[in-house]
Batch of 2 targets.
Target 1
Amino acid sequence: MTVTLNDVQDAAARIEGVAHRTPVLRSRTLDALVGAEVHVKCENLQRIGAFKFRGAYNAASRLSPEQVARGIAAYSSGNHAQAVALAARELGTTAVILMPEDTPRSKVEATLGYGAEVVTYDRYTGDRVAIGEALAADRGLTLIPPYEHPHVIAGQGTAALELIEEVGDLDALVVPVGGGGLIAGSATAAKGLLPGISVIGVEPEQGDDTKRSLEAGRRVSVPVPRTIADGQAADIPGELTFSLNHKLVDDIVLVSDDEIRDAMRFAFERMKTVMEPSGATPLAALLAGRIEPLPRRVGVIVSGGNIDARRFAELIG
């Protein structure tokens, strides 16, 4: 099973007019600090506040009428939960979402606000895939996973597709890595359009499962990460995402929680935009000098901005 540029382009046509075509920000201060021309794709301004709506809607909109009528299930730490909940609402059906007990309350409330039912579990002792699959089977629902699905991956790749369509040639694309769906779709789109581009993933130091896996040439599991970047708290890459990323991703770099905080503060103070911790990791990598040598024209995908005011103030204060 694979995902191609044609799949991403087909997803772009399917989500057009439903998902937002998000803006690309520039900052002369950022360019001067890092020594490159940086183009920031703001998926924090996407519907539900994150890129996840692209893949969720692309996958959900392809279900049969019978599947739509029965409803949709998903498991997620927050952004995919909201994305599937909204996709279900757009399609006139229901969603049941499995979420960790320690998910930020703002993400739980947003998921409920889109009309979904939320079921919780302990992410440190429970297997969300097994629990999610059992929940979907028990209720007769179609499960849309957060990244292990070709239509989800193709949908996520539309963010990179839009970025390149808008700004033209890029030397590098820097993307957050959690389960690997965003970077898999982004790399598929970017390398399909610009074969010479470097695709660089960014993980939190405590959640370096994809970096270890790419270095080992096989999927490697790490302890469930304890990091402020909760959207990147994956312990092992997906099989499908790893198979794509092993072929397409050039490097993975790591950032600390303090560097993520600094990037969030910079984005707020100098770029006037709010990034959640996971969304800020690519900017953190640039500001901390993790990418060497840094190419001349760099694209960055900010994956999301779902963070409540109290938590944001705690992190950057």
Target 2
Amino acid sequence: MSDIPVPVTDDATAVFVEHRELMFGVVYNMLGSVADTEDVLQETWLSWTARGGGSPLDGVANPRAYLVRIAVNHALTRRAAISRRQETYVGPWLPEPLVAQGEEDGVEDPALRTESVSLAMLVVLESLTPLERAVFVLHEVFGYAHTEIAEIIERSPAAVRQLAHRARGHVHARRPLYEAHPRVRREATERFVRAAVGGDIAELMEILAPDVTVWADGGGKRKGAGLRPVHGRDKAARLFDSLARRGGRHLDLHYRRVNGDDAAVLFQGEEPYAVLVLDLTPDGEQVSGVYVVANPDKLTHVQRGEA
């Protein structure tokens, strides 16, 4: 009998490609990192092509379920490595944003056609255990039944229901159910960015909520990104005024969809400088949270495109 591996069939490749967007969405929401998600999908491909002596479809009744199970388990393993990196991370850690290529919806990018929760929600999901997060993503975002999730993570349905209950409790305690209308979010984003980049303190004091928090993730590689979140309207306004004075007016501003929400992307020449995503108060009138992703390593997928 020959030891030469059987080439992967075109059918097996087509099945993997067909479900790649789904796997990307599930894994990205579990990890909050585009780079790590791509690595997990590569590991999933290798696991897929290694089974069955090069005939991945042999004996697989439901390829979609099989591939998702492989991807989720690779993601759970990768999650441990990400947690170790976060322990030594410089300053606040924020997820790697999914930024649309153009001013509209970026439908040309397959990653942006997947289900993705907001950047703020991804921050909340960091408070969950890896298994709780996997269950929450599969059930709440992708609509998997508890029995299906039980097979994916190899736990009993009762254990999955318990994980789901804990995850929902944690998320709902930290994240209001209210989501601003896209038009309201866009207007608030434009108003805030004009004030912040222009150093308009009076306008900033109007639009920032009294208990606003600013998270600036520079990874120790961007001047001006503090080592701790900034709490309170006065401190936040002074922070953005300082950034504007240090060169904010010379940055090019583009409005893009980031993780499905209207947001702002700042460029320095052709290079992305920062992504700004806002959280709004329930009435949509003020900014309750500002997420600034400025670590260059988290912006490698962001392209300038057309203004």
